[in-house]
Amino acid sequence: MIRTLDDDQPTVTGLLIDRGEIVRTGDTDLLRKQVGSRAEIEDLGGASVLPGLTDAHVHLQHYALGLQKVDCETPSLAECLHRVAERVRGTPQGEWVLGHGWQQNDWPDCDGGIAGFPNAGILDALAPDHPVYLTAKSLHAGWANSTALRLAGIGPRTEDPPDGALQRYPSGEPTGILLEGAMGLVAQAVPPETGASVREAIRLAQRKMWEFGLTGVHDFDRQACFIALQELHQAGELALRVVKNIPVEDLEHAAAVGLRSGFGDEMLRIGGIKAFADGALGPHTAAMLQPYEDDPGNRGMLLLDREQIFEYGRRAAEAGFPMTVHAIGDAANHEVLEGYRSLRAFETHSGLPNRRHRIEHVQLLHPDDLGRLAELDVIASMQPIHATSDMRAADKFWGERSEFAYAWRTL
């Protein structure tokens, strides 16, 4: 059975494909009669066929390279450490050991550090002679050992970047946990991947994504990824349809050369301008109107306010781009909506089309804001996996506010 998602003809038994395009659907015998002996017949033996899925928010380079890293998405801290130790044993002394996917909220045996996080000392015991850097599943926190901190030049006197923070002991000594923009302090010390290695990693990762049913993605990685995608496309090896979003810090460069949303072709085209309004639930950096239930002094990190969002949005709209802003906490979503309210008024006053502005994730809204995405015609780019992966953490850290989390039907 072939499911078409066409209400007039929801299922068919055959597809007619000409040079990579589906040109007709219908009854297999009838299609055979129409094309005669010219057609090659592919009998799927009764298997079901579904349209390809598009993942509207991926970090393609990070995912592809992550397939080569230690898989830290484990049910316990002990299992994560076991995997790291195995990789350390097989890695020459002094070389970096990289991993991804840890989530301290899922580890019942992780309770010795600050706010339930692990620390550098745990990794030091496994890897005294290797720099180790493991990124969280959320991509909003990093965990480094002492060797990695030293190579990155991080110590008690290191100042927090404006868009992030080093978690510290009361003495001021870094614990090894880096939040938001502070992750860049260690990331820049990691030897960069070559263009060829990024390209090859993405080429190989495509097959893994096909296995999930993905034939299209909206990508939010940066320059090296975009270059690799273009090179794969030119070589005829890009087999995912990719909408490529541009980081907000490159907005002026894109506008200066006349780039616009939609430029490209069916396999690779330009999307919107990506910005971050806050962090994430797991590391307690999502910006909240009221403090976290387990951390009364913490309301997360608001990285952009409504005025900044409007200014970025105004410039993007003038240059032909929609905005796509990451917002998870209720305070961040409120600021984005306020910025978009001003942006919609600007578009109308200036005679510009209403761009397809998005909010990425939209995990928690204040009840007063639940109807505003519809009012402002803003796209809720939400990821269902967050509802299942974060539901226990949301109940624990947001409490009764979680009633208004992941509210697809209401939005």
List the helices and strands and how they pair.
Elements lengths: L1 E2 L7 E2 L1 E5 L2 E6 L1 H8 L17 E6 L1 H7 L3 E2 L5 H13 L7 E6 L17 H7 L5 E5 L4 E4 L1 H6 L12 E5 L5 E7 L2 H5 L7 H17 L2 E6 L3 H12 L6 E7 L3 H6 L11 E9 L29 H14 L3 E5 L2 H21 L7 E4 L10 H5 L2 E3 L2 H15 L13
Structure described in brief:
This protein is an alpha/beta fold. The chain contains 13 helices and 17 strands.
User: Largest beta sheet, briefly?
Assistant: 7 strands, parallel
SSE class:
alpha/beta
What distance separates the N and C termini?
A: 33 Å
Q: What proportion of the residues is helical, as a percent range?
A: 25-40%
Report what the structure shows:
- Helices cover 33% and strands 20% of the residues.
- By secondary structure, it is of the alpha/beta class.
- Strands 5-12-13-14-15-16-17 form a seven-stranded parallel sheet.
- Helix 4 (120-126) links the parallel strand 7 (97-102) and strand 8.
